[in-house]
Design brief:
alpha/beta; Arc Repressor Mutant, subunit A; 8% strand; 5 domains; 554 residues; five-stranded mixed beta sheet
Length: 554
Amino acid sequence: MQQQPTLALKHITVSTNPRTYFDAAEMEELTASVREKGVIQPVIVRTLADGGYALVAGGRRFRAAMTAHGEDYEIPVVVKEIDETEAKQLAIIENIQRADMSPAEEAIAAAEQVGLCKGDRDEVARIFGWSRVTLDKRLALMNCSPNVLESLSTRQILLGHAELLAALPKETQDKLLPVIIKEGKPVAEVKKTIEQVSCSLSAAIFDKTDCAGCPHNSSTQGEMFGESIGTGNCTNRTCYNEKTEKQLESVASSLRDEYPVVRIVRAGDNHTRIQLAVEGPKGVGEEQAKACHACQNYGAAVSGLPDSIGNVYKGQCFDTVCNMRMVATRLQAEKAVAEPKAGAKPALAGKAAGKSNTAAPSTTSNPPATVVAESDRIKSYRVALWRKALRREVGADPALAQRYLVSIALAGQARCVDDSTLSAIWEKLTEEKIASGDVAKAATAVGAVDDGKLAHAVTGITVAAIQGLDVHHLISLCRHHRLDLNRHWKLCKEFLELITKSEMMVVADELGIRAALGDDFKKVFGKSKAEVIDALLDVKGFDYAGKIPNVLKF
């Protein structure tokens, strides 16, 4: 029987565990069992670049073994060749599927998984085996303060308490929490208290002009009654929430000219975004940061959270997995330059350790930095540019047009001839419109034209085929033709209006406009989008010819 491979505890690095609360009595029982019988169920570890190992799953067994036997204890292991992102995902799923995790721990794990799944909550619910309602309820807990989450994990408060507190600013939560714990307040009483302090008009982010004389304004009630709240609260929660949502969307809309992506963040979205950093432990590096400014996942967040409602956070990366990998790539590159190669990995004990373990660690290739977010508008614009440029060059050379027409037909793409384009060309040549589907009339019309017009018509068929070619065939033909876009395009208002200000920064870098503007660059981009476009198209002494942004190239 093949022996389970083992590793000494001292050779395993312990990373963050999704489970943060360990019941003392249960841990004591587990430790006693490990002291007597050892660890039977192996823990999961992954290999590190420096030759060591990191714990992925089995934190309770690791702790119990360390307490019972010390760092030299050989614990059974299953070695996974996975990267940090995959390890984190596996650890979350391992813990979420085990019993006795607190709702707070489940909330934190779920929020992290939402980040790894790029905000796809339906996918997270599927992975966890939860309903979408259960997932959303857990994610709502992420608006609780750290103290409230800890109190829920340590069973000092109930889930109902935490769900109610989550609707309040964190500082208010921390003021109420000690009272709830000390006095053992039931959920119903806490609910009544919170109802009295909710919907504060002083904290509202919307225009409160209409609220002054509203009967749902508690200040108005104070003028009518001797006893009232009198603090300027709104008692019409539905109206309050609708106005708040409208204002959040207005703030988000005002940012969409500036960034490729703008999102309103809600409770549970904690791990779906990260502040883009250049240097430091979370920095991606200067060159990567420039490219990130025009990535389709770069932008701004508008807070929909009670303690920061309406706040805007610019320079956000909404692909945390990609960001993590870019940071790791930069740190590894710096480490490779600064340090010699690390030593060999410690040997696994047991018979399995003797086997060759040559599998290379799993690596994920870094996605190329996006220069300009490839939105549908940009894709349509550039394809139209390619078609127009190729049509012009082919249309000017009848002999070449004939060759390309035969080539297109031989490649099985004759069906791509665009009827409307060909009809328009024929009508321009002959001032005669041919009804679609009338072959006899078409034959009569073609038979009546001279050879010169017929030759032009053949060229027109090629032009119409170029117009109708599928994009991948169009790209192939452009490359064969060695189409030079410099002859057909230069920076223009039409293109710049399709992209955001942050994308314009990258275009300005690529084309050399940033260097030409010098110290005026930041000043220019401090203006409105329309003013930035005007400035970029009117840089004194700058030669715009022969400069094509990467996003327009094929």
